[in-house]
Q: What sequence folds into this?
């Protein structure tokens, strides 16, 4: 006897696998589940303990990763004199929520915040834009020596950032961009890593889409803008997250470049709490807690896009 | 509306790989031309050169009266349907169909009218707001057709559009494409590796191999009068039977004989046209439906019969395929022969006499591309021709 019920018997009508012409019913988002399959149930039972074990392990790792974060938040509401205590929880002096306000009075925190967001946003935008253009060229346009140029560009990734810092700084001096926002944004507007990431992503988009668009009357720019870019969105989002976080956190280059205090970014500005004059760890942690908010927002907002995945349903496969 | 003229076109890829080797072909205004052949025969390359997706190494391609060698695909007034549909996944069906018109700056009202008309023709009005991923394979293919017809191009190009559909849907969509062509009467070039599609769809069929046109003619003409052995073997299921042997003239007529004991007398035109090859090694070709059981029903002499042994029979309902070998015992070396005959009870290993319909016999020169000697001189091969 068959273990699979016929569609007539099934509670949920099972759609025939092949849609007939004139059949305007959509293909189901997920294949309809056939009722009662003892074999698969057995398999599912076997998998359960493994799933629990996996979730437990992930939970432990997640908790360990959360600990420093927790310490940061708890320390941010401690009184300065309680910072060194063994206990993570604030002691007799209680929760010092005033620490957060204090940050704004001791340093121009809002100014640094704005500088950091301004620079990170511009760098992210420019990097995603230039990388996607370069990736489009490397992945979708045939030109002589293309792959060699790509390899050379890729090879720049092997140079450590610190090695390039001095030449970069000299260039900035020549261009007169030291101690300017543009001096922070411009060198970070191009990236071999982003180009590589997006190129690989674009290579997975079928070439026939470009050809179809070209026949439809699209210029190369239109193919890029109307076809490839929307399809590469998960790649763009990934790059945007990496770039924003990397740049928002960047310390050394701004430290080298910036001399005027009002142009400081958060990582530089926060040094004020950890100076030769003394450490104010509780204020530092309050400032850091506030400074991570944009990163969490960016991640939460974009992560949804990230997991949405590419919708390549138009092409067989 | 336009005719397409392919004139001595060559396509060579880097590394000196020749994909298309000097082909010439004239496609009439409104004609449905099918390019068919095994993979790597150059049919898709030819189509892509017409589309402008591949550069032409040598020769010219003209659409209408305009040579389009250096014209961009978008300016060639063509529309193409791809094997994988190539729908834009992030756009709705409506936007997919409207995209080409939008880029050509058609007014919105006109775009809407055309999209709805095409959707009506193809029966996909209800799908206009869906995205491709919510469509079945057949529906996607119809959207791809719709995207092509809204543009009302001079030439339709189809690149194996049915390959990704299952057998049943393929037959139905095939009929739909044929209906569509009847209705729109747009010049069409259709590439496929499926001989059945080629036979059923084409006004004319071009059989290609090794970058060359082997024969280009009406489907039934190609089937009944293949120009060479390749064409004969490519079209037809089960394929044509080939028996190697020699022609000889004994004063009493022209005979074909093989070392396995076949001895067949050629008659009529066949004998006349092949007469000059008496004494030559040749290959006799006969389609499975040209063979019959019970020779006595057809002729009383034994001039066109073969003594054979039944290996296997495959019943197909009212007909059956009989796989035969020469000689008496199964497994005897020598060519296998397939016959498609009326269904009847037949024992395996039975000795049978097979009758060959003399009007369905072909005689080829030896070799993969051996010329058909039973055709009139100058029969259609690869020359530039217009129907």
A:
């Amino acid at each position: 006897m068959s273990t699979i019920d016929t569609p007539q018997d099934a509670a949920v009508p099972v759609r025939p696998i092949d849609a007939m012409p004139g059949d305007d019913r959509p293909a189901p988002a997920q294949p309809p589940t056939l009722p009662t399959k003892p074999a698969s149930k057995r398999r599912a039972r076997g998998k359960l303990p493994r799933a629990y074990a996996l979730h437990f392990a992930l939970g432990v790792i997640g908790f360990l990763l959360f600990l420093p974060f927790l310490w940061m938040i708890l320390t941010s509401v401690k009184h300065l004199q309680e910072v060194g205590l063994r206990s993570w929880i604030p002691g007799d002096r209680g929760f010092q929520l005033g620490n957060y306000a204090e940050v704004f009075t001791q340093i121009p925190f809002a100014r640094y915040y704005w500088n950091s967001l301004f620079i990170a946003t511009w760098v992210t935008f420019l990097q995603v834009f230039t990388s996607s253009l370069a990736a489009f060229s490397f992945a979708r346009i045939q030109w002589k020596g293309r792959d060699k140029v790509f390899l050379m560009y890729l090879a720049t990734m092997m140079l450590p950032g610190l090695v390039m810092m001095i030449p970069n700084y000299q260039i900035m001096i020549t261009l007169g961009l030291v101690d300017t926002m543009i001096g922070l944004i411009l060198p970070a507007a191009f990236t071999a890593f982003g180009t590589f990431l997006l190129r690989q992503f674009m290579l997975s988009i079928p070439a026939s889409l470009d050809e179809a668009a070209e026949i439809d009357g699209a210029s190369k720019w239109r193919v890029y803008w109307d076809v490839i870019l929307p399809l590469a969105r998960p790649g763009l989002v990934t790059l945007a997250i990496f770039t924003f976080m990397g740049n928002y956190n960047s310390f050394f280059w701004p430290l080298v470049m910036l001399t005027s205090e009002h142009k400081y970014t958060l990582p530089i500005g926060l040094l004020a709490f950890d100076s030769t004059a003394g450490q104010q760890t509780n204020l530092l942690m309050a400032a850091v807690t506030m400074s991570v908010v944009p990163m969490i927002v960016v991640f939460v907002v974009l992560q949804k896009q990230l997991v949405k995945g590419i919708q390549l349903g138009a092409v067989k496969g | 509306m336009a005719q397409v003229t392919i004139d001595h076109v060559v396509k060579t890829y880097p590394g000196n790989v020749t994909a298309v080797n000097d082909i010439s072909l004239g496609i009439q205004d409104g004609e449905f031309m099918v390019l068919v052949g095994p993979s790597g025969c150059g049919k898709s390359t030819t189509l892509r050169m017409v589309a402008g997706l591949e550069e032409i190494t040598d020769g010219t391609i003209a659409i209408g009266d305009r040579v389009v060698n250096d014209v961009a695909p978008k300016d060639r007034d063509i529309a193409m349907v791809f094997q994988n549909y190539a729908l834009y996944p992030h756009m709705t069906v409506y936007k997919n169909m409207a995209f080409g018109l939008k880029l050509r700056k058609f007014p919105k009202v006109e775009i809407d009218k055309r999209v709805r008309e095409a959707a009506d023709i193809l029966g996909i009005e209800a799908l206009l707001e869906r995205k491709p991923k919510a469509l079945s394979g057949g529906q996607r293919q119809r959207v791809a057709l719709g995207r092509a017809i809204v543009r009302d191009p001079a030439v339709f190009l189809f690149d194996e559009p049915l390959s990704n559909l299952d057998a049943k849907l393929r037959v139905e969509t095939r009929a739909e494409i044929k209906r569509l062509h009847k209705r729109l009467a747009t010049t069409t070039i259709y590439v496929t590796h499926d001989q059945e599609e080629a036979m059923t769809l084409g006004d004319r069929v071009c059989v290609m191999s090794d970058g060359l046109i082997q024969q280009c003619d009406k489907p039934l003409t190609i089937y009944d009068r293949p120009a060479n052995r390749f064409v004969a073997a490519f079209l037809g299921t089960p394929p044509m039977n080939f028996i190697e042997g020699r022609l000889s003239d004994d004063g009493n007529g022209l005979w074909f004989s093989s070392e396995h004991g076949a001895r067949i007398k050629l008659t009529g035109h066949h004998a006349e046209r092949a007469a000059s090859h008496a004494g030559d090694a040749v290959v006799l070709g006969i389609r499975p439906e040209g063979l019959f059981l019970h020779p006595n029903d057809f002729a009383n002499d034994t001039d066109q019969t073969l003594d054979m042994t039944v290996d296997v029979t495959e019943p197909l309902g009212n007909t059956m395929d009989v796989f035969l070998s020469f000689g008496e015992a199964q497994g005897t070396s020598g060519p296998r022969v397939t016959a498609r005959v009326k269904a009847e009870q037949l024992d395996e290993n039975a000795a049978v006499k097979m009758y060959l319909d003399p009007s369905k016999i072909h005689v080829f020169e030896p070799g993969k591309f051996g010329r058909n000697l039973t055709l009139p001189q100058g029969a259609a091969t690869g020359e530039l021709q217009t129907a």
